[in-house]
Write a sequence for this structure.
């Protein structure tokens, strides 16, 4: 949509509204039978998200268009502007103050319910710090105690609807990852990205939800207690009391960063910082946010012998001859304008003069982008910026060659497009939506931007689909791995193991590889990158393989790794993982 002439994103723009309208109609038609009025589970819909200072006409249109779809469920707009016809909802880690201030619209808990659409679990970036180790248990942004405390703070003030972001961590299969994000998404939430439970957080939060279900009739039949708490004996110590039909439920909270002794109905509670107990009319403790029980299990990994590989090098010496589409331009073009984001890769090729034997190639690019440079088809080096940022970034690669004319080839790899949602009229929009060479490039401090460049979208292996059996048969695979180039495709196979189920998952461990795309039976399971953090641990060392993409038990599955930074020495294994009793 970025390339439709005259479009303004997220604005009162006819082109934008037409495209959004068509998409929403397709989506809602497809899911219509799953809405509540037809017996399905969908009770809420959302038309916009985190829109700030938007066009008033567009905000009004969002509400009117949503209502026109006639889905018989409430509509929301989250964390920002909202239409009079939609519910203003909260995103964040703690939405209690959102209720106390009646939301951003001033209507929450007055004539609209309190809704929390994103209780953030947070994602991980490549190269970011792990807390302990490189496996699924090694990184966790929030504790189980923190989750349940903040959920209950929302409920005790009168919140009605709550949604985790996420409950299941998820994976970025294919090229869906946002800028700088790891293959797993929010791995530290209640269910890990390989679908195994994150204990004891999973059990603790599930216990809280069972408790809330048991007391729902009391909560639903009394008024919301926002700003009506009973002040207790200590600072930021409160009680939110609900009564119905002879039953009572009280949320007793210590809402501060230090432990304290809290007294409620003459009972003394020794409460940790940021903690809560829920009690009934007989002072029975129904739930204690700090009472998180250890689980008598631990995770284990069972890895097979390392896989044997053959390889095929990307033929960078003759990209046009390899069947690649080419766009020739009098300047270096921005990447997404060439690829439409259908691939994360773009080759740039030009002729340059080396005025000296050693100097620096400097490239004006954006965050979450990588470059690999070749001089006369010989690898020179690479640089990247891999954080979850939106901005401009200059990358530098050392070049060596004889004085004189040379062929320069650069592979640009997008490390994810920004998932920010600013309008294309916003001044920060450009750095969020551009990749590759963006406006300038210099060799030995000499401008080489404004000269003839050839652009080849994609990797040759992508175009030939060498990750499929049919595509692999078109090229010659070799066994002498020591001669594999930095840009090479690796081919192997493995058998589907016995016993895979909800509690036994299959993983790829690409030890000895560097960065690239992994394919199983032709399915792209996403980017692998064996980058380490400052603790010397891989940011992500295991990659989930969905069971649906595997062949039956005992049959062979193909594995292709499209390596873009040069493998050290492939020591790749296929592993299973499960929890076993201590």
């Amino acid at each position: 949509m970025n390339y439709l002439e005259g479009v303004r994103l997220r604005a009162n723009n006819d082109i934008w509204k037409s495209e959004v309208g068509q998409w929403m109609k397709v989506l809602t038609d497809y899911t219509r039978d799953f809405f509540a009025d037809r017996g399905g589970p969908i009770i809420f819909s959302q038309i916009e998200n985190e829109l700030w200072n938007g066009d008033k006409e567009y905000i009004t249109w969002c509400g009117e268009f949503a209502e026109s779809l006639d889905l018989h469920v409430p509509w929301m707009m989250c964390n920002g502007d909202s239409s009079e016809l939609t519910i203003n909802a909260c995103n964040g880690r703690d939405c209690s103050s959102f209720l106390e201030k009646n939301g951003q619209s001033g209507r929450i808990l007055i004539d609209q319910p309190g809704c929390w659409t994103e209780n953030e679990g947070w994602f991980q970036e490549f190269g970011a710090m792990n807390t302990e180790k490189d496996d699924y248990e090694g990184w966790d942004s929030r504790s189980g105690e923190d989750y349940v405390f903040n959920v209950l703070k929302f409920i005790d003030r009168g919140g009605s609807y709550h949604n985790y972001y996420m409950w299941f961590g998820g994976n970025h299969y294919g090229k869906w990852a946002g800028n700088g994000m790891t293959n797993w998404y929010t791995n530290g939430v209640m269910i890990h990205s390989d679908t195994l439970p994150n204990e004891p957080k999973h059990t603790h939060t599930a216990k809280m939800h069972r408790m809330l279900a048991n007391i729902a009739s009391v909560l639903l039949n009394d008024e919301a207690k926002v700003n009506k708490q009973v002040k207790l004996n200590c600072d930021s110590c409160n009680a939110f009391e609900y009564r119905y039909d002879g039953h009572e439920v009280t949320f007793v909270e210590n809402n501060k960063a230090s432990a304290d002794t809290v007294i409620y109905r003459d009972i003394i509670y020794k409460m940790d910082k940021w903690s809560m107990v829920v009690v009934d009319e007989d002072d029975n403790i129904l739930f204690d946010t700090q009472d998180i029980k250890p689980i008598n299990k631990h995770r284990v990994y069972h890895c097979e012998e390392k896989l044997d590989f053959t390889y095929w090098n990307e033929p960078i010496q003759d990209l046009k001859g390899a069947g690649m589409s080419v766009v020739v331009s009098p300047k270096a073009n921005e990447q997404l304008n060439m690829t439409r984001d259908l691939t994360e890769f773009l080759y740039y090729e030009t002729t340059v003069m080396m005025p000296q034997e050693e100097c620096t190639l400097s490239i004006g690019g954006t965050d979450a982008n990588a470059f690999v440079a070749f001089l006369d088809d010989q690898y020179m080096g690479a640089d990247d910026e891999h954080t979850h940022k939106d901005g401009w970034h200059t990358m530098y690669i050392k070049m060596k060659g004889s004085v004189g004319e040379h062929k320069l080839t650069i592979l640009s790899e997008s490390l994810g497009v920004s998932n920010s949602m600013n309008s294309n009229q916003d001044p920060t929009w450009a750095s969020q939506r551009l990749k590759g060479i963006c406006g300038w490039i210099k060799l030995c401090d000499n401008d080489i931007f404004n000269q003839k460049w050839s652009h080849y979208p994609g990797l040759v292996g992508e175009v030939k689909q060498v990750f499929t059996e049919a595509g692999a048969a078109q090229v010659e695979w070799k066994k002498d791995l020591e001669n594999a180039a930095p840009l090479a495709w690796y081919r192997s196979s493995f058998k589907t193991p016995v016993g895979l189920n909800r509690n036994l998952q299959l993983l790829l461990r690409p030890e000895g590889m560097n960065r690239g795309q992994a394919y199983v039976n032709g399915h792209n399971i996403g980017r692998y990158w064996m980058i380490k953090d400052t603790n010397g641990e891989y940011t992500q060392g295991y990659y989930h393989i969905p069971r649906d993409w595997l062949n039956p038990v005992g049959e062979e599955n193909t594995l292709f790794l499209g390596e873009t930074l040069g493998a050290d020495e492939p020591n790749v294994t296929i592993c299973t993982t499960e929890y076993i009793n201590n």
